[in-house]
Amino acid sequence: MMLMNKTAVVYGGSGHVGGAVARVFAREGARVFLAGRKLDELEKHAAEIGAAGAAYVDATDRDQVEAHLDAVGPVDVSVNAVSLHGTVMGTPLTELDVSDFLAPVSYGLRAHFVTATASARRMAVAGSGTILTFSTTAARLSAPDQRQHRTGGFGTACAAIEAMTMTLAGEVGPLGVRVVCLRPDAMPETWGAGAEPDPQMQASTALGRMPTLAQVAETAAFVASDRAGAMTRTVVNLSCGSVLD
Ligand SMILES: NC(=O)c1ccc[n+]([C@@H]2O[C@H](COP(=O)([O-])OP(=O)(O)OC[C@H]3O[C@@H](n4cnc5c(N)ncnc54)[C@H](OP(=O)(O)O)[C@@H]3O)[C@@H](O)[C@H]2O)c1
Fold first, then answer.
1. DSSP state for residue 196 in the 8-state scheme
2. Cα 2 to ligand 1 centroid, rounded to whole Å
3. pTM
4. Helical residues (DSSP H) of the chain, grouped into ranges
5. 104 lines ligand 1 (CB under 6 A)
6. 132 lines ligand 1 (CB under 6 A)
7. 53 — phi, psi (to 5°)?
8. Residue with CA closest to ligand 1 atom 46
9. Backbone angles phi, psi at 183, to 5 degrees
10. CA distance linking residue 223 with residue 2, whole number of Å
11. Ligand 1 touching residue 190 (CB < 6 A)
């Protein structure tokens, strides 16, 4: 098992991505702690996958994140899979309010900054650890896609999370801590029951299909494991080839 003897915290642990990642981490032997704002769902998922704990933690609140990590104890892997609230979709940037543009940037960066730095501080003292952040292909959409989707501040938020990942990785790498961003394209399974993949989106990938939750979660487990010990300060492209870098 890839994550034997590892303790992992998954923020957004009852969400689509966080839930899938936590399930694979538990299967791979990790002691998993789910953190988020839907305690009922977190507890239910924790029981299903055999997680070590579930707790209410607002990932944007530094005091709550610090107190939770103090309670959990030494952490080997930190995963932030929280959703970015506040995005106004469909409005061209030229017509978007400044506050609407900045809302997902501020929310996403804050949540990732708070959780990543809280773990990094502790991992640096321990001399090892891995931090995983999440962005999306909105960070790298082609010009036609950008016009089509009009993602407001969302793409900028994702690009900023990737940039923060690089900066932190450079700072804490010499202290033994790896920091990697995972960048999937849209996973139709997360759109709700019966949702069909968009043929236009599928056609825009090199593989002619979208990534699956299982593929993303399995990659997260590999990247979190010692097998990926040479990997840091990078973005893992899980787009099925919809973006090239
Ligand atoms: N789904 C996709 O197709 C896809 C594709 C590419 C990348 N991603 C990325 O993957 C990540 C997770 O996406 P998802 O599809 O799993 O979203 P999701 O199903 O909505 O799950 C996100 C979870 O995060 C929680 N959350 C949000 N704000 C939080 C906060 N401040 N503190 C604690 N928990 C918080 C949400 O619950 P509450 O809001 O109720 O707290 C929810 O449980 C996001 O970064 C997303 O951009 C997703």
1. P
2. 25
3. 0.97
4. 16-27, 39-49, 62-72, 98-126, 143-149, 154-172, 199-203, 213-224
5. no
6. no
7. -175, 165
8. 83
9. -125, 85
10. 10
11. yes
Superfamily of domain 7-238: NAD(P)-binding Rossmann-like Domain (3.40.50.720)
Determine what percent of the chain falls in helix, strand and coil, rounding each to the nearest 5: 50, 15, 35
pLDDT of residue 23: 98
Q: Which value, in Å, is the radius of gyration of the alpha carbons in the chain? A: 17
| Closest to 157 measured CA to CA, from 177, 139, 180 | 139
Mean pLDDT within 90-107: 96
Q: Would you say the CB of residue 14 lies under 6 angstroms from ligand 1?
A: yes
Q: Could you give the maximum distance between any two Cα atoms of the chain, in Å?
A: 51
Query: Per the structure block, which two tokens stand in for 219?
Result: 């990659």
How many residues appear in the chain? 245
Nearest Cα to 242, choosing from 217, 209, 212? 209
129 within ligand 1 shell (Cβ under 6 A): no
Query: Quick one: tokens of 65?
Result: 């994140």
Residue type, 166: M
Per-residue pLDDT tens over the stretch 108-164: 999 999 999 999 999 999 999 999 999 999 998 766 666 667 889 999 999 999 999
